[in-house]
Sequence to fold (417 residues):
Amino acid sequence: MVELYGEQTRLTLKNMSFSGVRISEFPSYLTALIQVKRACAAANCCAGYLSREKKDAICLACDKLLQQDHSEQFQVDAFHGGGGIGTNMNVNEVIASLAGRGIQPVDDVNMSQSTSDVCHTALRLSLYREVERLKEVIRVIIDTTAEKAEAFQPYLTIARTCWQDGMSVPAGAVLEGFLSALLEQLELLENYQSTLLRVNLGWTVIGSGTGAPDGYRAYIIGALREVTGLPLSWKKSPYQAAQYTEDLSVLSVHIRVFSSILAKFARDVRLLASGPETGLGEWKIPAVQAGSSFFPGKVNPVMAEMMIQCDMLIGGNDSVIQGVLAQGEMHLNVWEDMAGFLLLQNIMRLSRAAELFDRLCIRGIELNEETSRKYARASIPVVVDYKERYGYKKLALLVKKYGFEKAIERIREGELD
Fold:
């Protein structure tokens, strides 16, 4: 491999590689960062700070990176220290090498920029796009669930509360609750998503704008809008953008709630499909692969368990993301990149896991109609029906004295004493 990066990238690889997670694992982030560099070159040229020849060379290099796979050039550890300096320099050096013509990584490619405002902006762009992909997956699950809920609705089963029998309920009730939760959270996520389009590009390290001329700032947001096609704007306070990561924290909560909704439903799937002889056996799930290397023919809920494990990982990342907000000190939160990459991991994982869970499990769920009818005829629903006629206290005493089955027999025979 011909190395397009330079000495600063080599030093980062040597000094700060520890996690095994490379920035090349986040292609949407690299795309966003390269688009930021392209927009910065255009803005600097429009303001008269960068020659047209250099601007064209930088833009051409950026276009090559956007159109071709150069992931091998971006091996910097995503979680290195220094507030993302290694990532920014890696991209600067690769662009400069591709541009040629004496283009300098810092003086030309990084002109009027700091790592802080560049990486901050790229993170928001990539998160916005990953959220778009996640929404597409969630909409597909919503459609699948709506079809299943409608198909199950004509049948009755029994509800369980505190893992004890409850009253009779439509067999689609679990699906209907899951569906409604997804719809509600999707609306909340869509309402919040636009927050990610407010960035601080042009305000450099701490939000003062030092090092970025007013002429450049006059063009940069327009140039970035043109490159990305997104309605971007500045944050109300560039100082806030440098110091606080609350937008990442709030988005992370939205993602974790989605994950928890899916995990809760996955747990319901495991229980309702348990059996085949000694479990609930109310639902049937598709056998996507061997469920056990020991029990022949065993159908384990592997897709549901995958979804639950995904939720556990997302919860761990979310805890760190929330901690990053509090760990910021004074004028710059140097941990922002870590929170951003962990959040990207969460969204990407959730998108993949949810798509698999829908395609290989939810779509294939079937109702065991005979079992559901049997559960719907259990004792507790009958007692609940009689409660409305005879009162809670009288029935409770009767059940305590005779047990459910005999109590129901006495009620049907008119013997309530």
